[in-house]
Design brief:
The complex is a heterodimer of chains A (about 250) and B (about 90).
Chain A: E1 3-8, E2 11-17, H1 20-29, E3 34-35, E4 43-49, E5 57-61, E6 64-69, H2 76-96, E7 101-110, E8 113-118, H3 125-134, E9 138-141, E10 144-150, E11 153-157, E12 173-184, E13 189-192, H4 195-204, H5 219-231, E14 233-239, H6 244-250
Parallel strand pairs in A: 2-4, 4-6, 8-12, 12-14
Antiparallel strand pairs in A: 1-2, 1-3, 5-6, 7-8, 7-9, 7-10, 10-11, 11-12, 13-14
Chain B: E1 7-10, E2 16-19, E3 22-27, E4 32-35, H1 38-46, E5 51-52, H2 53-64, H3 68-84, E6 88-90
Antiparallel strand pairs in B: 1-5, 1-6, 2-3, 3-4
Helix pairs in contact in B: 2-3
Classes of the chains: A alpha+beta (about 250), B alpha+beta (about 90).
Chain lengths: ~250, ~90
């Protein structure tokens, strides 16, 4: 059986591989997110090995998404990585229609609450993850954070998308406490953002994707950004890339 | 563009939010947010129902204490730009 079910944030996706070795490798790598359920999938995805294509080409065929991917002869992991990027686009495209945002951010957990740190490459997301780990805080994600509004709360989900460290993969969810937008600085401090700035920052730090048009921002993304601005404290965090930020972030 | 006998109204398909008196428009084509300035925000809110350019100019002149001539220029610029971008309709 090369068909596997994949669960993320309560939604089910089926992945049908035409290569059993690839299916086996995928199962091993993403075992925390595999599901046994036979409920109806949000999206059916067929992974087809096609060495005539130079890169992974998505094509939509009714309710079925076909990902054509060339097989890297030297490394299955490289092929899995390529598939992961395309799956990320396809799955986020579907989830965004259901009110999810994928933020370009890292996240750690303290007191069962999620602290999220948004920023471009080099802003310090990975540094924050490392410092959190060194201080016995649970790392949730180090590069992309999935958020939605669930039962009156904003919820952060771990996800299997490209993360810098493999050991982040774990299926879990936490209530969102605060979001910080990283700025490099010589002194650590935080400044609360107003609603307008928060919405603009959320959108600017969202991963927007649609496998049909390449880029996509739905009204639900806009609505969720407003909900986050209404319900969560969001700050500019001026960050020296040392552990001094922890006290500032964790203080009320 | 001859606006003399036309009324201007927001395109009902455009997704927007009013946050702290400012209007944010979702530009779905480019996946960007557009933040309207104070003048454009006021016009945007005012054209929820069809309004002539003279009505809009009068509203601006009153709100911002400028001459009708100055506000009319602002309105014509607004309508030209936003009509071209499909954000407002002429009826």
């Amino acid at each position: 059986m090369n068909k596997i079910f994949f669960s993320l944030a309560g939604f089910l996706f089926s992945l049908d591989f035409d290569d059993k070795h690839l299916a086996k490798e995928f199962k091993q790598k993403y075992q925390d997110f595999l599901a046994k359920s036979n409920k109806i999938e949000l999206l059916k995805i067929k992974i087809v090995i096609d060495n005539s294509c130079n890169y992974c080409i998505p094509e939509k065929n009714g309710q079925l998404l076909i990902l054509r991917v060339p097989k890297n002869k030297k490394s299955l992991s490289e092929t899995i990585l390529e598939i992961n990027w395309r799956l990320k686009t396809a799955i986020i495209s579907e989830l965004s229609k259901h009110g999810f945002i994928l933020l370009h951010a890292s996240c750690f957990i303290s007191g069962n609450l999620a602290y999220v740190f948004c920023g471009n490459s080099g802003a310090g997301k990975s540094t924050i993850s490392q410092i959190a780990q060194d201080n016995n805080l649970l790392k949730s994600c180090d590069d992309s954070v999935l958020v939605n509004f669930n039962d009156g709360n904003l919820v952060v989900y771990s996800n299997p998308f490209i993360e810098k460290e493999k050991n982040f993969y774990q299926k879990n969810q936490w209530k969102l406490k605060s979001i910080f937008f990283l700025n490099q600085a010589k002194i650590d401090k935080k400044e609360i953002l107003n609603k307008l700035s928060t919405i603009k920052q959320i959108i600017a730090n969202s991963y927007l994707a649609d496998y049909e048009t390449g880029i996509f921002m739905s009204p639900t993304t806009f609505d969720l950004a407003e909900k986050i601005a209404n319900k969560t404290d969001c700050y500019d965090l001026f960050f020296t890339k040392t552990n001094k930020f922890l006290k500032i972030v964790l203080s009320e | 563009m001859n606006l003399k006998n036309k009324k201007i109204i927001r395109n009902g398909q455009v997704v927007f939010k009013t946050i702290d008196s400012k209007v944010l428009i979702l530009d779905q084509k480019n996946s960007k947010l557009r933040e309207l300035n104070e003048t454009a925000s006021l016009i945007w809110k005012y054209i929820a129902k069809p309004k002539s350019i003279n009505e809009i100019a009068q509203k601006l002149a009153t709100e911002f204490e400028v001459t009708n001539k100055d506000s009319l220029t602002d309105v014509i610029n607004f309508v030209s730009l936003y009509y071209e971008q499909g954000l407002v309709d002429l009826v």
